[in-house]
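Components:
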Amino acid sequence: MMQLFFKRIGFILLLGFGIAMLVSAGSLWLLRQSSFYKPSFLVNDIPEKNFDYIVLGASTGLTTLNTTVIDSVIQTKGINLSMDDTALSSQYLMLEHFLAQGKTTKFCVLAPSAASFDAKDPDISDNDYRFLPYINEDYVFQYFKQYTSTRAKLVSNSKWLPMLGVSYFNVEVFYPSLFTIIQPKKRNRFDAKGNYTYPIKNNKEAAISEFKAFPVSFSNHYIAKIKALCMANNIELICYFSPIKGRKVIAETTSFSIINHSDVLKNEAYFYDVLHVNTRGRQMASIHFANVFQTLLK
Amino acid sequence: MLFNSIDFAIFLPIVFVLYWFVTKRSLSLQNVLIVCASYLFYGWWDYRFLALIALSTLVDFLVARQLQKETVRKRRKALLFVSLVFNLGMLAFFKYFNFFIESWVDAWQLFGIEMQTATLKIILPVGISFYTFQTLSYTMDVYRKKIDATNSFMQFAAFVSFFPQLVAGPIERASHLLPQFQTKRIFNSEFAISGFYLIIWGLFKKVVVADNCAYFVNQIFDGYGSYSSMELFLGAVLFAFQIYGDFSGYSDIAIGVSRLFGFDLKTNFSFPYFSRDIAEFWRRWHISLSTWFRDYLYIPLGGSRGSTWQNVRNVFIVFLVSGFWHGANWTFVVWGAIHATLFLPLLLLQSNRKHITSTKLSLQQVPMLVGTFVVVTMAWIFFRADSVSIGYQYILDIASFNSGTTQVFYKTSKTVLFTAIIVVSIGILLLFEFLAIQKDKKEVELNRYTAIAVVLLICFMGVFKNPSAFIYFQF
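Structure:
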């Protein structure tokens, strides 16, 4: 009697999960062929091998430094590899991913939110699933494996059982992969050079008179790891602090260069919210950055 | 432990193997295993409240044994009184204490009198309303001499704590479930496979239908003031499917898991959104609770055999108490009152049993189905709202037909995706249920291929990242 039961549920589970496994593997393959997320965009859409600089960061780096503006001002070749809702650990992974493609850069501009420099990063970031299609790469697998949370384990075990990560992040991974069948070159909220901008919500001119101190001590251990990886590949590390409404970052270190533009924009009209600039602010901040960066290039 | 958790996915096969391979030869050992597994299952959430279940089990076991021996009517009544006071007292303390205190203060405030009282920080033990009602039905049935009291404490403990239905039902009657703990279980493959199919279907209802609906429901109900009439109405419709998928999904899994262990639990939901009137809705929704109230409250009050006034009173009492059973908030009482008001005309016109024999649906009945669904959905608004005034305002905002869009459902690519998933999943749910009704089945029946398809739907349409807790756990 029991045999029939095990045969029947075995058939359903094996075939069901078998199909799910194949569909998931196919889904990851589709994403790897696409330009939908930054990791595959870098592999499939960026033929250039050598850059003057790359921008690594979270939403602040993504929406503040417009590489198109910077390159047009100082005649450089750069790309923005920032991803929103990510941490320093994710930026380290992106740097590894960049180098794994055989690409090089003279400068690495690290532009996460100021708070990230002192965060602990006890878990993977909200958008780290974007590396899931590359889970078979050892550096990606090792990255997820170091975390103990359920979602990190699901992603790392996707190396053998792709269904785990794809089901868990089905809205973020499975459905976009279906979408890429129709539009493989579609990019998810970034332009051909990896930039994105927030719209102008409030065009009201209002001077920001007071900037409160925001101390940063670079205690996140990923700073040292990024620095070491940069050194090993002859890349100069620059930490960039993007404009914050009413805050001035206080940060000093001799380990790497700092471009502190946290208080460079002194009008509310440049901001989308407290942490992010809008299109106008991005233009201003990018020009400010280009001017300072030009001196470092020399 | 949640049914839709990895913990349970590990727990269930272990208990299954121990049950059918290690303790198979001894009925007593199987019952001991069920009690241990059930206490582990419950204690996984909060072990401190295991003592409450144990105490409730002990009190009702002893009271029922004494009731069995006792012949003097007064003493029998006193014993029943002990059980009622203990069980309802426990429920009143853990679930309603703060509500009574706050309502008392509010009532005096109406007369301009300010009162200073302290409330207690009481954690509501999960499932307390379910297992107290189950044990109460046992002592009341023994008191009425409908069943004999059991002499085996372990069998009774297994009946009270049986893990598949411990925290959210179905609320089983001792006359139905207790004998199953007293007889040797023989593994029946077909029965177990039907249970396995029910588990899959229940997971689909919970993980795909309910949890995806929750995405919009939470947004709309939490910020109801900033949505258009149509968005609010659709938010209420989605809540109707959320609560149905959530609760009936739990019941399906509970019944399915029980079948794996050779136990037959009663049907708790019978396609309620295919009801043609409110009376039929209540024969299809949370059947184990509505029949409990019918047998232990409505009929003892006189049922529908008294005068018109008594009938009206009885219906209101049952619906109000039923609403109050759900939670210590006036919103549930209003929800019960709305259903009573909708049910009364049918009772008074003696058409409340109109659809009792015919289950198959015809095209001409579609307006009746839609009408019943709409009034049920409107009542759900109070069930979901944080307060009566919010529920009232929510309905007013729907009725105002204010201009606006349904933008919330297609604002971003992500919301479009959720909308599509919800439409497809509700469509599948209703299609399977409609087919089951037309075939006169009590439950959705899958075969091996549809089961595989449903497994795939769960994998790729389910919510795993931010799953919602089962709504009925809070009751």
